[in-house]
């Protein structure tokens, strides 16, 4: 079949399917793109010529496109994704941050940046990087650190093995992440007689791999000997659709569960044993149980520092780990017994081997008391009645209470992810979508749009800080264009409140974290910025300018009204609400390692250093 390389790629992608548990899903559901001289006449021509093969979506920013694709793929439990095509140069490198975010979070996205001429005849073309010591380098080499598969198609026939490799990695539950095929602009339009079988309906099977029976036996033996076992549920529980298996295991054995950011939603918040968030942004219930746990069963978690509280979460001197993970590199972490396999079938196999065994009643009673206590604390934080402007926890409470059980909350960076991790009452396993592997400011609106595209029948609530909003609000326009409604709650606290809080806790008075006019530069949260004079910036007006229906709320009552009104509006709504910059949610029984200067002229920094050293002394090795 004689096609250009770009036409062949589009045709190939349209024929790729993924199958798990007997159900087939189309794998690449569409292609986002921003055109320039590096892709217009190649991939652009192919998409325009055969729109039935792959739906084309326009976006405003290439980083935004990758976040949309990642939000989409995460919502679909990695069983489907989107491709992203860009021009060469800045259009391509704009995707680097999105690629890193997808790869860190183990979310499949297919990136198709244009690249400079393979022939090199017109060198240097517009936007070409010239590297004196190596002719074959282009800006796309910068993706090598942030992709799971990287290739450059130098000849049209090379597409065949490269595209197959790309698909293998994208659909591998252990290896997946951002995959990049760089497409030199001349090769995109070169024709080749491709074999017809390259374009045939191809099904990539996602299996449910079981760990060795002997390892499962050993794991069951270890767990049976435990007095205070705890499950740490990560994103893998949700991606492998293991939430029912987990619920059954917890119900039967009484082993309680702490959830990571990606794993939040593994259990409904009100189930017995659901201790909620664990780690640096964890609940006191989960963190106290973690501190004493003798067996920690990590399921689908990569044990980031937020989960392990920088290796201070598990203080029982005899603690040991059993790790269920599809990725070998994760199942071996913290010196654990590695159960490399699919979360669902592995939990089922463990459940069988634990038949007749449960935790003792005293343990159950203790963690249920902690859970009930925590639930009261959430209610308190939801209803602080803080004034004159509300506290952020009340905003989250109002959104939680006024959203439906299947609606989705989306967030990524700032102080809200930690607060949501602690306070959000999840009722559906796909109702909590916080990108906290890379915590990318700017993911919120774009990622939320991907969620909405993946499941249009759910309402999507995007929680975004003023800082994140200013980094990347432009995909509001895409949401208007595609008639995909988001409800964006824009929380204004005059800048980087989370980092301001971190700064104050490290003796640095919030230096450089508030949006204010410049002044004398004295240390403080307005440092370098005159106190008392806010900037004449109106983010609500900005959102209106991008096409959103904007509602301004000054207090919780008005926010509740706005959330009610938003339900009846069929285009993207932005609800703008100011909150108290200093009224944060406390952290509970936890620590996060952020280094503090070993020598300083400031007593405040010295004090912070002392505290830091006390924290460091609590770190464990777990090897
Ligand atoms: C792209 C990017 N740059 C910098 C950071 C570091 N950072 C984390 S939170 C934050 C401030 C976020 O401000 P805002 O969105 O207003 O949320 P707030 O902290 O006020 O809740 C910064 C700068 C980041 N996570 N991502
Ligand atoms: Mg802010």
Summary?
With 623 residues, the protein is of the alpha/beta class. The chain has 24 helices and 23 strands. It has a 6-stranded parallel β-sheet with strand order 5-4-6-7-9-8. A 6-stranded parallel β-sheet has the order 14-13-12-15-16-17, with helices on both faces.
Overview of the structural elements:
Helix 10 packs parallel to helix 14 (343-353). Helix 13 links the parallel strand 16 and strand 17. The model has no long low-confidence stretch (mean pLDDT 97). The chain has 623 residues and is of the alpha/beta class. The protein has a six-stranded parallel beta sheet with strand order 5-4-6-7-9-8. A six-stranded parallel beta sheet has the order 14-13-12-15-16-17, with helices on both faces. A six-stranded parallel beta sheet has the order 19-18-20-21-23-22, with helices on both faces. The termini are far apart. The chain contains 24 helices and 23 strands. The longest helix is centred in the middle third of the chain and has 22 residues, at 361-382. The structure holds thiamine diphosphate (TPP) and magnesium ion. The site of thiamine diphosphate has 18 residues, from helix 19 and helix 21. Thiamine diphosphate (TPP) binds next to helix 19 and helix 21.
């Amino acid at each position: 079949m004689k096609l250009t390389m770009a036409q062949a790629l589009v045709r190939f992608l349209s024929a790729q399917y993924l199958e798990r548990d007997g159900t087939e899903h189309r794998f690449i559901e569409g292609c986002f793109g921003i055109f320039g001289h590096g892709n217009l006449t190649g991939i652009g021509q192919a998409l325009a010529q055969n729109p039935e093969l792959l739906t084309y979506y326009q976006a405003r920013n290439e980083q935004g496109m990758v976040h949309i694709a990642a939000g989409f793929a995460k919502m679909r439990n990695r069983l489907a994704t989107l491709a992203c095509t860009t021009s060469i140069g800045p259009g391509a490198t704009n995707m680097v941050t999105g690629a890193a975010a997808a790869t860190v979070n183990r979310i499949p996205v297919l990136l198709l940046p244009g690249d400079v001429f393979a022939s090199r005849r017109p060198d240097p073309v517009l936007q070409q990087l010239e590297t004196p010591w190596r002719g074959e380098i282009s800006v796309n080499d910068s993706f090598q650190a942030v992709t799971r598969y990287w290739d450059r198609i130098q000849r049209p026939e090379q597409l065949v093995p490269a595209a197959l490799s790309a698909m293998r990695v994208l659909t591998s539950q252990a290896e997946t992440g951002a995959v990049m095929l760089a497409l030199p602009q001349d090769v995109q339009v070169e024709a080749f007689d491709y074999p017809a079988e390259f374009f045939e309906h191809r099904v990539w099977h996602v299996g449910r791999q079981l760990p060795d029976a002997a390892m499962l036996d050993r794991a069951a033996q270890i767990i049976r000997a435990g007095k205070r076992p705890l499950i740490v549920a990560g994103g893998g529980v949700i991606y492998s659709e293991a939430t029912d298996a987990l619920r059954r295991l917890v119900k039967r054995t009484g082993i309680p569960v702490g959830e990571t950011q990606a794993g939040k939603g593994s259990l409904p918040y009100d189930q017995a044993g659901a201790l909620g968030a664990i780690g640096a942004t964890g609940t006191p219930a989960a963190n106290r149980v973690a501190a004493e746990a003798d067996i920690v069963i990590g399921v689908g978690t990569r044990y980031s520092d937020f989960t392990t509280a920088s290796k201070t979460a598990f203080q029982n001197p005899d603690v040991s780990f059993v790790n269920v993970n599809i990725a070998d590199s994760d199942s071996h972490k913290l010196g654990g017994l590695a159960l490399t396999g699919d979360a669902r079938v592995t939990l089922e196999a463990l459940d069988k081997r634990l038949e007749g065994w449960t935790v003792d009643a005293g343990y159950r009673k203790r963690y249920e008391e902690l859970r009930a206590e925590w639930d009261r604390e959430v209610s308190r934080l939801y209803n602080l009645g803080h004034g004159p402007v509300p506290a952020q926890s009340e905003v989250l409470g109002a959104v939680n209470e006024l959203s439906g059980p299947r609606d989705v909350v989306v967030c990524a960076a700032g102080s809200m992810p930690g607060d949501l991790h602690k306070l959000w009452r999840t009722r559906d396993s796909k109702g909590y979508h916080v990108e906290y592997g890379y915590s990318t400011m700017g993911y919120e609106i774009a990622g939320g749009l991907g969620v909405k595209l993946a499941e249009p029948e759910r309402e999507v609530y995007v929680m975004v800080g003023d800082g994140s909003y200013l980094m990347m609000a432009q995909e509001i326009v895409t949401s208007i264009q595609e008639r995909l409604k988001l409800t964006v709650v824009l929380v204004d606290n005059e800048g980087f409140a989370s980092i301001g809080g971190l700064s104050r806790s490290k003796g640095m008075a919030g230096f450089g974290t508030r949006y204010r006019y410049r002044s004398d530069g004295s240390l403080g949260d307005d440092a370098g910025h005159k106190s008392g004079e806010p900037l004449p910036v109106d983010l609500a007006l900005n959102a209106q300018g991008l096409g959103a229906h904007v509602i301004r709320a000054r207090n919780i009552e008005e926010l509740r009204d706005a959330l009610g009104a938003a339900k009846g509006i069929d285009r993207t709504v932005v609800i703008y609400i100011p909150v108290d910059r200093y009224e944060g949610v406390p952290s509970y029984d936890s620590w996060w390692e952020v280094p503090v200067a070993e020598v300083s002229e400031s007593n405040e920094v010295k004090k912070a250093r002392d505290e830091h050293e006390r924290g460091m002394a609590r770190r464990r090795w777990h090897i």
